[in-house]
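User:
Note these tokens:
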Amino acid sequence: MRAEVDRDLCEANGVCAGLAPAVFELDDEDELVVKQSEVLPEEVERVTQAVAACPRNALFIRDR
């Protein structure tokens, strides 16, 4: 499973970085970075919450 961001929709609100900081972060220019696109089993719940909480629906979880 992979975490992805639609950069056209993302406003870099940082909600995802707060919920899944091992996977998402905001860089120095306040752009969202997917630090680890391959979601590890221990991060699935947090990433799923981050995707659901994204105010712009810019995050996705895809099967490889």
Notes: The first helix runs from residue 15 to 19. Residues 34 and 40 are 13 Å apart (CA to CA). The mean pLDDT is 96. The first strand starts at residue 2 and ends at 5.
